[in-house]
Amino acid sequence: MTGTLINVGTVLAGTLIGTLVGNRLPQGMHDRVLAGLGLITMVLGVDLALAWRDTNALYVLGGVLLGGLVGEALRIEDRIASLGNRLQRLSARGNEHSTVSEAFFTASLLFCVGPLTVVGALQDGLTGNYQPLATKALLDGFASIAISATLGPGVAFAALTILVVQGGLSLVAGVFEHALAPGSEALAALTSAGGVLIIGISLKLLAVKDVRVGNFLPALVIAPGLVGIVSLLR
Protein backbone atom coordinates (compact mmCIF):
# COMPACT_ATOMS: atom_id res chain seq x y z
CA MET A 1 0.00 0.00 0.00
CA THR A 2 3.05 2.29 0.25
CA GLY A 3 2.90 3.34 -3.40
CA THR A 4 -0.83 4.04 -3.18
CA LEU A 5 -0.38 6.25 -0.13
CA ILE A 6 2.37 8.20 -1.93
CA ASN A 7 0.01 8.57 -4.91
CA VAL A 8 -2.79 9.88 -2.71
CA GLY A 9 -0.40 12.41 -1.18
CA THR A 10 0.83 13.76 -4.53
CA VAL A 11 -2.72 14.15 -5.85
CA LEU A 12 -3.80 16.07 -2.76
CA ALA A 13 -0.70 18.27 -2.94
CA GLY A 14 -1.18 18.85 -6.66
CA THR A 15 -4.83 19.73 -6.12
CA LEU A 16 -3.89 22.31 -3.48
CA ILE A 17 -1.30 23.92 -5.76
CA GLY A 18 -3.58 23.87 -8.79
CA THR A 19 -6.51 25.37 -6.88
CA LEU A 20 -4.38 28.19 -5.51
CA VAL A 21 -2.88 28.92 -8.95
CA GLY A 22 -6.15 28.49 -10.80
CA ASN A 23 -7.92 31.15 -8.78
CA ARG A 24 -5.40 33.68 -10.08
CA LEU A 25 -5.76 32.82 -13.77
CA PRO A 26 -8.06 34.79 -16.12
CA GLN A 27 -10.81 32.88 -17.95
CA GLY A 28 -8.88 32.85 -21.22
CA MET A 29 -5.96 31.06 -19.58
CA HIS A 30 -8.35 28.63 -17.91
CA ASP A 31 -9.76 27.75 -21.33
CA ARG A 32 -6.31 27.25 -22.83
CA VAL A 33 -5.19 25.01 -19.98
CA LEU A 34 -8.37 22.94 -20.32
CA ALA A 35 -7.89 22.65 -24.10
CA GLY A 36 -4.25 21.63 -23.65
CA LEU A 37 -5.27 19.06 -21.03
CA GLY A 38 -7.87 17.69 -23.44
CA LEU A 39 -5.31 17.33 -26.24
CA ILE A 40 -2.75 15.64 -24.00
CA THR A 41 -5.45 13.34 -22.65
CA MET A 42 -6.39 12.35 -26.19
CA VAL A 43 -2.77 11.50 -27.04
CA LEU A 44 -2.50 9.44 -23.84
CA GLY A 45 -5.72 7.63 -24.67
CA VAL A 46 -4.61 6.81 -28.21
CA ASP A 47 -1.25 5.56 -26.94
CA LEU A 48 -2.95 3.24 -24.43
CA ALA A 49 -5.62 2.13 -26.90
CA LEU A 50 -2.93 0.93 -29.31
CA ALA A 51 -2.04 -1.77 -26.78
CA TRP A 52 -4.52 -3.90 -28.74
CA ARG A 53 -1.58 -4.60 -31.05
CA ASP A 54 -0.41 -7.04 -28.35
CA THR A 55 -3.70 -8.92 -28.37
CA ASN A 56 -6.74 -9.33 -30.62
CA ALA A 57 -8.56 -6.08 -31.35
CA LEU A 58 -11.85 -8.00 -31.18
CA TYR A 59 -11.40 -8.41 -27.42
CA VAL A 60 -11.26 -4.64 -27.07
CA LEU A 61 -14.12 -4.07 -29.50
CA GLY A 62 -16.30 -6.64 -27.77
CA GLY A 63 -15.37 -5.34 -24.34
CA VAL A 64 -16.21 -1.73 -25.19
CA LEU A 65 -19.48 -2.54 -26.97
CA LEU A 66 -20.71 -5.04 -24.38
CA GLY A 67 -19.44 -2.82 -21.58
CA GLY A 68 -21.40 0.11 -22.97
CA LEU A 69 -24.60 -1.96 -23.08
CA VAL A 70 -24.10 -3.25 -19.53
CA GLY A 71 -23.23 0.21 -18.24
CA GLU A 72 -26.26 1.74 -19.91
CA ALA A 73 -28.52 -0.92 -18.41
CA LEU A 74 -27.03 -0.35 -14.95
CA ARG A 75 -27.06 3.44 -15.44
CA ILE A 76 -23.49 3.68 -14.16
CA GLU A 77 -22.97 7.19 -15.53
CA ASP A 78 -26.06 8.45 -13.70
CA ARG A 79 -24.94 6.80 -10.46
CA ILE A 80 -21.44 8.28 -10.73
CA ALA A 81 -22.95 11.68 -11.53
CA SER A 82 -25.21 11.33 -8.50
CA LEU A 83 -22.20 10.62 -6.28
CA GLY A 84 -20.33 13.55 -7.80
CA ASN A 85 -23.34 15.81 -7.32
CA ARG A 86 -23.57 14.84 -3.66
CA LEU A 87 -19.89 15.72 -3.24
CA GLN A 88 -20.59 18.91 -5.14
CA ARG A 89 -23.46 19.90 -2.84
CA LEU A 90 -21.28 19.27 0.19
CA SER A 91 -18.45 21.43 -1.10
CA ALA A 92 -20.05 24.01 -3.38
CA ARG A 93 -21.79 25.96 -0.61
CA GLY A 94 -24.39 27.48 -2.87
CA ASN A 95 -22.21 27.85 -5.94
CA GLU A 96 -24.44 26.61 -8.77
CA HIS A 97 -21.52 26.53 -11.22
CA SER A 98 -19.30 24.22 -9.17
CA THR A 99 -17.34 21.68 -11.22
CA VAL A 100 -16.69 19.24 -8.38
CA SER A 101 -18.57 16.40 -10.08
CA GLU A 102 -16.73 16.79 -13.41
CA ALA A 103 -13.34 17.15 -11.72
CA PHE A 104 -13.93 14.06 -9.58
CA PHE A 105 -14.93 11.84 -12.50
CA THR A 106 -12.29 13.12 -14.93
CA ALA A 107 -9.43 12.79 -12.47
CA SER A 108 -10.60 9.39 -11.18
CA LEU A 109 -10.57 7.87 -14.65
CA LEU A 110 -7.25 9.43 -15.67
CA PHE A 111 -5.52 8.33 -12.47
CA CYS A 112 -6.90 4.79 -12.30
CA VAL A 113 -6.92 3.56 -15.92
CA GLY A 114 -3.64 2.40 -17.40
CA PRO A 115 -1.04 -0.35 -17.15
CA LEU A 116 1.02 1.43 -14.50
CA THR A 117 -1.99 1.39 -12.15
CA VAL A 118 -2.47 -2.35 -12.47
CA VAL A 119 1.15 -3.49 -12.72
CA GLY A 120 2.35 -1.06 -10.07
CA ALA A 121 -0.37 -2.04 -7.60
CA LEU A 122 0.31 -5.76 -8.13
CA GLN A 123 4.05 -5.32 -7.65
CA ASP A 124 3.50 -3.25 -4.52
CA GLY A 125 1.19 -5.89 -3.09
CA LEU A 126 3.25 -8.94 -4.05
CA THR A 127 6.85 -7.78 -3.55
CA GLY A 128 6.64 -4.45 -1.74
CA ASN A 129 8.25 -2.72 -4.73
CA TYR A 130 6.48 0.64 -4.81
CA GLN A 131 8.79 2.37 -7.32
CA PRO A 132 6.38 2.03 -10.30
CA LEU A 133 3.58 3.60 -8.27
CA ALA A 134 5.94 6.30 -7.00
CA THR A 135 6.66 7.20 -10.64
CA LYS A 136 2.93 7.22 -11.39
CA ALA A 137 2.37 9.35 -8.28
CA LEU A 138 4.71 12.02 -9.63
CA LEU A 139 2.88 12.08 -12.98
CA ASP A 140 -0.53 12.19 -11.28
CA GLY A 141 0.65 15.03 -9.06
CA PHE A 142 1.47 17.22 -12.04
CA ALA A 143 -1.76 16.20 -13.79
CA SER A 144 -3.77 17.11 -10.71
CA ILE A 145 -2.25 20.61 -10.78
CA ALA A 146 -3.48 21.11 -14.35
CA ILE A 147 -6.93 19.62 -13.76
CA SER A 148 -7.60 21.44 -10.49
CA ALA A 149 -6.39 24.73 -11.99
CA THR A 150 -9.26 24.52 -14.48
CA LEU A 151 -11.92 22.32 -12.84
CA GLY A 152 -11.30 23.16 -9.20
CA PRO A 153 -10.68 21.27 -5.94
CA GLY A 154 -13.00 18.37 -6.80
CA VAL A 155 -9.87 16.59 -8.04
CA ALA A 156 -9.03 15.88 -4.39
CA PHE A 157 -11.93 13.42 -4.19
CA ALA A 158 -10.16 11.31 -6.83
CA ALA A 159 -7.65 10.45 -4.10
CA LEU A 160 -10.39 8.27 -2.60
CA THR A 161 -10.76 6.47 -5.93
CA ILE A 162 -7.01 5.85 -6.05
CA LEU A 163 -7.08 4.54 -2.49
CA VAL A 164 -9.90 2.12 -3.26
CA VAL A 165 -8.77 0.94 -6.72
CA GLN A 166 -4.98 0.79 -6.32
CA GLY A 167 -5.12 -0.14 -2.68
CA GLY A 168 -7.64 -2.87 -3.40
CA LEU A 169 -5.49 -4.31 -6.18
CA SER A 170 -2.47 -4.37 -3.88
CA LEU A 171 -4.42 -6.14 -1.13
CA VAL A 172 -5.73 -8.87 -3.47
CA ALA A 173 -2.66 -8.96 -5.71
CA GLY A 174 -2.23 -12.72 -5.42
CA VAL A 175 -5.54 -13.35 -7.19
CA PHE A 176 -4.55 -11.36 -10.30
CA GLU A 177 -0.82 -12.15 -10.33
CA HIS A 178 -0.96 -14.48 -13.34
CA ALA A 179 -4.08 -13.22 -15.14
CA LEU A 180 -2.79 -9.63 -15.39
CA ALA A 181 0.94 -10.30 -15.55
CA PRO A 182 3.06 -7.82 -17.55
CA GLY A 183 2.98 -8.74 -21.23
CA SER A 184 -0.20 -10.81 -20.94
CA GLU A 185 -3.03 -10.51 -23.44
CA ALA A 186 -5.48 -9.78 -20.64
CA LEU A 187 -3.49 -6.78 -19.46
CA ALA A 188 -3.14 -5.55 -23.05
CA ALA A 189 -6.91 -5.82 -23.55
CA LEU A 190 -7.59 -3.97 -20.28
CA THR A 191 -5.06 -1.26 -21.17
CA SER A 192 -6.47 -0.79 -24.65
CA ALA A 193 -10.07 -0.61 -23.42
CA GLY A 194 -8.97 1.93 -20.82
CA GLY A 195 -7.33 3.99 -23.55
CA VAL A 196 -10.58 4.07 -25.50
CA LEU A 197 -12.37 5.38 -22.40
CA ILE A 198 -9.71 8.04 -21.89
CA ILE A 199 -10.24 9.20 -25.49
CA GLY A 200 -13.89 9.62 -24.52
CA ILE A 201 -12.84 11.83 -21.60
CA SER A 202 -10.70 13.95 -23.94
CA LEU A 203 -13.69 14.54 -26.22
CA LYS A 204 -15.60 15.88 -23.23
CA LEU A 205 -12.72 18.09 -22.09
CA LEU A 206 -12.49 19.52 -25.61
CA ALA A 207 -16.28 20.09 -25.64
CA VAL A 208 -16.59 17.91 -28.75
CA LYS A 209 -19.08 15.38 -27.38
CA ASP A 210 -20.11 13.90 -24.05
CA VAL A 211 -19.99 10.16 -24.76
CA ARG A 212 -21.01 9.23 -21.17
CA VAL A 213 -17.78 7.39 -20.49
CA GLY A 214 -19.03 6.11 -17.15
CA ASN A 215 -21.36 3.68 -18.90
CA PHE A 216 -18.36 2.07 -20.62
CA LEU A 217 -16.53 1.23 -17.37
CA PRO A 218 -17.61 -2.46 -17.45
CA ALA A 219 -15.36 -2.74 -20.53
CA LEU A 220 -12.38 -2.74 -18.16
CA VAL A 221 -13.62 -6.07 -16.80
CA ILE A 222 -15.22 -7.53 -19.91
CA ALA A 223 -12.26 -7.02 -22.29
CA PRO A 224 -9.72 -9.02 -20.22
CA GLY A 225 -12.54 -11.41 -19.30
CA LEU A 226 -13.05 -12.24 -22.98
CA VAL A 227 -9.35 -13.09 -23.22
CA GLY A 228 -9.72 -15.49 -20.32
CA ILE A 229 -12.85 -17.11 -21.76
CA VAL A 230 -11.26 -17.68 -25.17
CA SER A 231 -8.09 -19.11 -23.60
CA LEU A 232 -10.21 -21.63 -21.67
CA LEU A 233 -12.01 -22.72 -24.85
CA ARG A 234 -8.84 -23.28 -26.84
Polypeptide structure, described:
The model has no long low-confidence stretch (mean pLDDT 84). It is built from eleven helices and no strands. The longest helix has 23 residues, at 27-49. The protein is globular, with a radius of gyration of 17 Å. It has 234 residues and is mainly α. It has helices at 2-22, 27-49, 57-74, 76-92, 100-112, 115-127, 131-151, 158-171, 173-176, 185-205, 219-233. It has one domain. Helices cover 77% and strands 0% of the residues.
Summarize the structure.
The chain is built from 11 helices and no strands. The protein has 234 residues and is mostly helical.
- Helix segment count? 11
- Low-confidence segments: none
What percent of residues are in strands?
under 5%
- If you average the pLDDT, what whole number results? 84
Structural class comes to: mainly alpha
Could you tell me the radius of gyration in angstroms? 17 Å
What profile does the largest beta sheet have?
none
Sequence of secondary-structure elements? HHHHHHHHHHH
Cα distance spanning the termini: 37 Å
Shape: globular
Number of domains: 1
Say how many strands there are: 0
> What portion of residues is helical?
over 70%
Oligomer: single chain
